[in-house]
TrEMBL record, chain A:
Protein family (similarity comment): Belongs to the CPA3 antiporters (TC 2.A.63) subunit B family.
InterPro entries xref list: CPA3_antiporter_subunitB, MnhB
Location in or out of the cell: Cell membrane
Protein name: Sodium:proton antiporter
PANTHER family noted in UniProt: NA(+)/H(+) ANTIPORTER SUBUNIT B, NA(+)_H(+) ANTIPORTER SUBUNIT B
Gene Ontology CC: plasma membrane
Organism listed in the record: Lujinxingia vulgaris
Residues that span the membrane, as ranges: 6-27, 66-85, 97-118, 124-144, 156-176, 196-216
TrEMBL record, chain B:
Keywords: Cell membrane, Membrane, Transmembrane, Transmembrane helix
UniProt record similarity statement: Belongs to the CPA3 antiporters (TC 2.A.63) subunit C family.
The protein's name: Na+/H+ antiporter subunit C
Annotated transmembrane regions: 6-24, 33-51, 63-83
Coarse class of the protein's main subcellular location: membrane
Length: 233, 101, 90
């Protein structure tokens, strides 16, 4: 055990040193002009939305964002294929007051998720915030022993997982076909950008929410939260 | 020192804690937690070190970190599913534990 | 308000160290989730509202649920999934 302790102290010192080095490097002032943020601010008119973060995510760096949704879907497939045929939620509150309270709050949370989607073009919010809130809603719904309605139909589940990626690609190709001059993907013009971004946001939020929920439940519809644990009176 | 630089230091501290947990701890869940703390630290350094524009940090690092958070949670979920699988197959929860097999 | 930032930083560190050094895994998951909420406060303090919202939903909500679910799974004997759940201490 003595060598173990020496090892732990050694690693503690080394990781503190690493943190110190990283901090020293990050606190150093460098001149990275022109900064990307200025370029974005300058081009914000053409992006179709007025929120900088949404403009970067869904217009200027749309390729990255699409691949990131692909990463989510791949992770979901991985977790899905690993789970036993009947995945179970192993933790569930048995307090009836807690369950009723959560159940009463859920509609508000659903509404909040949808509002964030709508707000995303001009204010903080958007695809990721909305998808995350909706996914968390789904997890809460499963935890209080209810089923999430949209996940009950097998074909619907398969569609919803890929719809975010497909809409993203369609938007990119359409942008390339309609662009004057260049033929770059996702180069929509200012006029049509807003519509495409809205479509991507809706589809993307659905996919993100569903994938997050599926990562929690293992993607199974027969998620049996009723067995085991204390049955709520 | 401007306040955002404090968060660079806080992020560096989280990086240290995360690396320590990732290397030293043997329980797989704890290692996963260490990786999560590490990624949180990196995100915090990115945002804390971002250039300030009016009303908040630069939009570009924010968008990067936003995608990063979502990718981190999906990676965590896949890792935890793998941990559950390892436990089902071999009865092991940590790196050196030997289960009934 | 530099005091608030420093207090936030120290809180983050204490929670992170607690999460990785706590002997009881359940307690360390709780500390980890708490850290997620404090990180969301830090994003709000830095002016990154998008990040704060995503962090509350993902870092504190979904990640915590995933960890707790895995802990519940690891409590059972292997090969006996779904049977004989011991959720009394969770």
């Amino acid at each position: 055990m003595r060598t173990r302790h020496i090892f732990e102290y050694g690693v503690a010192l080394a990781s503190l040193g690493l943190g110190g080095l990283v901090a020293a490097g990050a606190l150093r002032r460098r001149s990275l002009e022109p900064a990307a943020g200025d370029v974005v601010q300058g081009l914000l008119e053409q992006s179709g939305v007025s929120s900088v973060v949404t403009a970067v995510l869904l217009n200027f760096r749309a390729y990255d964002t699409m691949l990131e949704v692909v990463v989510l879907v791949v992770a979901f497939w991985g977790a899905w294929s690993l789970h036993p045929t009947e995945a179970r939620v192993h933790w569930r509150p048995s307090d009836p007051i807690l369950m009723r309270t959560v159940g009463g709050m859920l509609p508000v949370l659903w509404l909040l998720g949808i509002y964030l989607l709508w707000a995303g073009t001009s204010r903080p919010g958007g695809e990721f915030a909305s998808g995350a809130v909706l996914g968390a809603c789904g997890v809460l719904t499963l935890l209080i022993g209810e089923r999430v309605p949209a996940t009950q139909f097998r074909p619907a589940r398969k569609v919803v997982v890929v719809v975010g990626v497909v809409v993203f690609m369609v938007a990119g190709v359409a942008g390339a076909l309609s662009a004057q001059g260049g033929s770059e993907v996702w180069s929509y013009t200012a006029g049509e950008a807003r519509g495409w971004i809205l479509a991507i946001e809706v589809a993307g939020a659905a996919t993100i929410a569903f994938v997050l929920l599926g990562l929690f439940s293992g993607g199974r519809e027969g998620l049996d939260v009723e067995s085991g644990g204390g049955e709520a009176p | 020192m401007i306040p955002s630089q404090i968060y660079v230091i806080a992020g560096a501290g989280l990086v240290s804690v995360g690396v320590f947990a990732w290397v030293v701890r043997r329980h797989l869940v704890r290692r996963m937690m260490g990786v999560n703390i590490l990624s949180t630290g990196v995100f915090m350094m990115l945002i804390g070190g971002a250039r300030r524009v009016e009303g908040g940090p630069d939009g570009v690092p924010q968008a990067m970190v936003l995608t990063g958070i979502v990718v981190a949670v999906s990676a965590t979920a896949l890792g935890l599913a793998l941990i559950q699988r390892i436990y089902d197959q071999r009865g092991e929860r940590s790196v050196e534990e030997r289960g009934p097999m | 308000m530099i005091v608030f930032d420093v207090v936030l930083m120290v809180t983050l560190w204490v929670l992170a160290v607690g999460a990785v050094s706590q002997a009881d895994l359940f307690k360390s998951v709780v500390l980890f989730v708490t850290m997620g909420v404090v990180v969301a406060v830090a994003w709000a303090r830095l002016g990154a509202a998008d990040l704060a919202m995503v962090e509350v939903a993902v870092g504190a909500g979904i990640t915590g649920a995933l960890f707790l679910n895995t802990l519940g799974h690891l409590e059972q004997r292997p090969g006996e999934r779904g049977e004989g759940e011991d959720t009394s201490h969770l």
